[in-house]
C-alpha cells in the first residue's frame, strides 16, 4: 500500500530556515541533529513547560513526532506553531497530520491554504486537480439535499430534464385542458422553462401542438446532441384503443420522437414498440445515444411494469425490446428509468424493498450483469411515491418527483444535490485466533484507503466482528491489532457487492521469533529517506509487542540501503535509518538500553544484483533486520 508519509519530505530539512535557536534549545537541537527525536522531544517539552517556547520550539517539537510517526502529537504541536506562523511547509505537514488522524475536512482546509500560497508546487497542483480525493465513510442516512424546485403548482408536476439551458417538465397546470377522472386535474402537458443566470427556472412555456395534444403527454428524454426528443403520449390521439366488456375505450401509452427544427419541434414519429395491447412509456436515452430504456407492461414480463432496453441504430431504426431481467424487474412495478452519464441506471419500484410506495433505486450493468439493486436513500426517497429521478453525475445535481407530505400540489418536483456516494459496501471483519479458531474480541480493526489514510477504526465485539461501510469499487486494507498477537493486514478489493466478509486469523506474537531474529514483514524506506512510514510503523509495532511481552529481550536493528549513490553516502543514510528505527521503538515505551541500531550501508544487499537492479530489487535492499542479542524468555 501507498501511504501518506510517502508524500512527505524529512521534517528536519524544513526546519533549516528557522532561526530561533538559542541557548535554551541547544540541548534539544543537538538531540534533533543526531536523529534522537525522543530525547529531543523531551527537551523541547521542558522548554514548553517552562513557558519559553516560541514558533521554533513548537515546530521542532512537532517535527520530532512527525519523524517517529506520532501523528496525534505532531498535529497538536503543528497547530500551536501555526498560531504565530504561516510557514507553507508547516501548513502542509499539519494538513497531512490532520488527514492521518481522520480529520479530512480540516485537512482539506489547510491543504487549500497551502495550495494558495504555493500554487506551483506539485503537491498543490495535485490537490487542485482533485480536492475531494479523500474517501468518505458512508453512513446510512441523508444522502441528498432536497428542496422545492420552484416550478410547482397546486396540480401535478413531475419530471425534470435539463437540455441546452432549458428545463423540461410534465404538468397538469393547463386549465384550458379538460380534466380526467383519476385526480380531477387537467390532462398532462410538457412544459419548457428557461434556466436563469441565478439558477432559477423562468418563463414556463407550453410546447407546441406538434408535441402537446388534448390527451396526456409525459416524460421526455433527449439524444446526446439534443436534436431528438423522446416522450410519452396517450394512444387516443392516434385512435389506438381497445374496448372493455362495458364498451369503455381503454387507451395505452405510447412512445414518440420528434426532431428539433429551426421553428421548433417536428411532427412526431411513433416508435415501433407501440401497441394497443400494452403501454410503453418513460423513455430515457443512454449518454452515448445508443440505447433507449423504457417501461412497459407488455406480455412476458415479470410484473406489472418492467424496464426494457432497445438499441438505437445509426440508421434511425431500433433493435428488439429486451427485458432487463429479474434482478431489476420484480413482480411489482419498475418504471421511470434514467440512464446517467456514467452508466448508472436509476428507476422507481414498488417491488424492491423501500420506504414507501415507489422508491428510487440504482444499479449498473457490468460485463453484461447488473450490480446489486440499491435504494438511493433518504431524503430522495420518502414514505410516499418517489419517481422520475434524474441527475447530472458531474454536478451531482438533479431532480426527483414525489407526492410526499408538505408539497405544493399532488405531485411535486424537487431539486436534489447529492451529499454522499450512493453505492456502499458493508465490510465485515471476522477476527479469530489462528491456533484455536476462537473469536477474538477487543481487537482493534482499522480500515485504510490505498494512500494509507485511516478511514475508521472499530473494536471487535464478543463475536470477533467489526463492520465498516465504504463506497463501492474502493480498494481498502484492514489492519488488526491485538495484545499478544501478531498484527495482521488484509487487502480488500473494491466491489459493487452489497456485503463482503473478510476472515482474519491472528497468530500468537511468539511466531515472529525465529531463532535469533524477530522476523517482520519487510520494512521499506522511500528512496533517499529515513523517516518512519505508516507501513514501517505497522511492522515495528509487532516488534514492540514482542519486547513488551519479553522484557529481557534485547534487539539490534540493522539498516541497509540500495547501491544508488556513493558508499559513503549510503553508509550515513543507513545509520540515519537505524537511528530513526530505534527512536520509534523507544518512543513507544521500550527502554533505550534494550534496542540499538547499526547502519550497514550497501555492503550486505538482500538481492545482489550489482548494477542491474530493478526498482523492486532496490526497494528490497532498503530494509531493516532485527537480531536478538539477549534472550531470556520465561
- Computed structural class: alpha+beta
Strand runs, count:
38
Low-confidence residue ranges: 1-19, 133-139
Share of residues in strands: 25-35%
* Oligomer designation: single chain
Number of helical regions: 11
Shape: elongated
The whole-angstrom Rg is: 33 Å
Mean pLDDT: 86
Describe this structure in words.
- This protein is α+β, with helices and mostly antiparallel strands and 634 residues long.
- Helices cover 20% and strands 32% of the residues.
- The strands form eleven sheets. Strands 8, 9, 12, 13 and 14 form a five-stranded antiparallel sheet that branches.
- A hairpin with a 2-residue loop joins strand 2 and strand 3 (166-171).
- Helix 7 (104-117) crosses helix 8 (122-129).
- Mean pLDDT is 86; it is low at 1-19 and 133-139.
Concise structural overview:
The protein has 634 residues and is α+β, with helices and mostly antiparallel strands.
Amino acid at each position: 500500500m501507498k501511504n501518506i508519509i510517502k508524500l512527505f519530505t524529512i521534517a528536519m530539512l524544513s526546519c533549516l530556515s528557522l532561526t530561533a535557536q538559542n541557548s535554551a534549545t541547544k540541548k534539544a537541537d543537538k538531540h534533533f541533529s543526531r536523529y534522537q527525536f525522543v530525547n529531543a522531544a523531551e527537551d523541547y517539552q521542558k522548554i514548553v513547560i517552562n513557558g519559553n517556547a516560541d514558533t521554533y520550539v513548537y515546530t521542532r517539537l512537532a517535527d520530532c513526532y512527525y519523524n517517529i510517526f506520532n501523528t496525534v502529537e505532531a498535529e497538536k504541536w503543528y497547530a500551536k506553531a501555526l498560531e504565530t506562523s504561516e510557514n507553507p511547509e508547516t501548513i502542509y505537514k499539519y494538513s497531512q497530520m490532520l488527514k492521518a488522524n481522520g480529520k479530512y475536512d480540516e485537512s482539506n482546509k489547510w491543504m487549500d491554504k497551502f495550495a494558495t500560497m504555493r500554487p506551483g508546487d506539485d503537491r498543490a497542483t495535485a490537490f487542485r486537480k482533485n480536492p475531494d480525493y479523500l474517501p468518505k465513510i458512508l453512513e446510512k442516512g441523508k444522502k441528498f439535499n432536497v428542496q422545492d424546485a420552484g416550478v410547482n403548482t397546486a396540480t401535478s408536476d413531475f419530471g425534470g430534464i435539463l437540455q441546452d439551458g432549458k428545463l423540461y417538465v410534465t404538468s397538469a397546470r393547463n386549465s384550458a385542458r379538460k380534466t380526467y377522472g383519476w385526480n380531477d386535474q387537467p390532462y398532462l402537458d410538457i412544459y419548457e422553462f428557461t434556466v436563469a443566470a441565478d439558477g432559477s427556472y423562468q418563463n414556463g412555456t407550453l410546447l407546441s401542438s406538434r408535441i402537446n395534444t388534448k390527451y396526456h403527454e409525459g416524460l421526455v428524454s433527449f439524444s446526446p446532441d439534443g436534436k431528438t426528443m423522446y416522450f410519452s403520449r396517450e394512444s387516443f390521439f392516434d385512435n389506438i384503443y381497445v374496448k372493455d366488456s362495458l364498451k369503455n375505450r381503454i387507451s395505452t401509452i405510447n412512445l414518440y420522437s420528434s426532431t428539433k427544427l429551426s421553428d421548433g419541434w417536428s411532427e412526431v414519429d411513433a416508435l415501433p414498440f407501440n401497441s394497443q395491447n400494452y403501454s410503453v412509456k418513460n423513455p430515457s436515452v443512454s449518454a452515448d445515444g445508443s440505447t433507449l430504456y423504457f417501461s412497459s407492461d407488455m406480455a412476458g414480463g415479470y410484473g406489472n411494469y418492467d424496464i426494457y432496453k432497445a438499441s438505437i441504430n445509426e440508421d434511425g431504426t431500433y433493435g428488439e425490446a429486451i427485458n432487463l431481467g429479474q434482478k431489476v424487474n420484480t413482480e411489482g412495478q419498475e418504471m421511470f428509468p434514467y440512464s446517467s452519464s456514467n452508466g448508472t441506471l436509476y428507476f422507481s419500484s414498488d417491488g424492491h424493498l423501500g420506504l414507501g410506495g415507489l422508491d428510487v433505486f440504482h444499479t449498473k450493468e457490468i460485463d453484461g450483469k447488473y450490480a446489486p439493486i440499491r435504494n438511493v436513500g433518504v431524503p430522495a426517497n420518502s414514505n410516499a411515491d418517489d419517481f422520475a429521478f434524474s441527475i447530472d453525475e458531474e454536478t451531482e445535481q438533479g431532480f426527483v418527483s414525489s407526492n410526499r407530505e408538505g408539497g405544493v400540489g399532488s405531485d411535486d418536483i424537487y431539486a436534489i444535490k447529492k451529499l454522499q456516494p450512493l453505492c456502499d459496501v458493508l465490510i465485515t471483519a471476522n477476527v479469530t485466533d489462528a491456533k484455536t479458531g476462537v473469536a477474538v474480541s477487543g481487537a482493534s480493526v482499522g480500515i485504510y484507503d490505498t494512500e494509507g489514510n485511516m478511514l475508521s477504526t472499530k473494536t471487535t465485539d464478543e463475536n470477533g466482528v467489526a463492520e465498516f461501510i465504504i463506497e463501492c469499487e474502493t480498494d481498502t486494507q484492514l489492519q488488526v491489532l491485538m495484545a499478544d498477537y501478531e498484527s495482521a493486514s488484509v487487502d480488500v478489493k473494491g466491489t459493487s457487492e452489497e456485503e463482503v466478509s473478510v476472515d482474519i486469523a491472528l497468530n500468537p506474537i511468539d511466531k515472529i521469533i525465529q531463532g535469533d531474529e524477530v522476523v517482520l514483514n519487510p520494512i521499506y524506506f522511500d528512496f533517499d529517506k529515513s523517516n518512519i512510514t505508516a507501513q514501517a510503523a505497522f511492522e515495528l509495532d509487532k516488534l514492540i509487542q514482542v519486547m513488551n511481552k519479553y522484557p529481557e529481550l534485547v534487539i539490534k536493528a540493522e539498516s541497509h540501503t540500495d547501491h544508488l549513490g556513493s558508499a559513503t553516502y549510503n553508509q550515513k543514510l543507513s545509520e540515519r535509518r537505524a537511528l530513526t528505527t530505534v527512536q520509534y521503538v523507544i518512543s513507544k515505551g521500550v527502554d533505550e538500553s534494550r534496542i540499538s541500531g547499526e547502519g550497514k550501508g550497501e555492503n550486505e544487499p538482500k538481492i545482489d544484483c550489482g548494477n542491474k537492479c530493478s526498482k523492486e530489487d532496490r526497494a528490497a535492499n532498503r530494509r531493516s533486520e532485527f537480531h536478538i542479542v539477549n534472550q531470556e524468555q520465561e
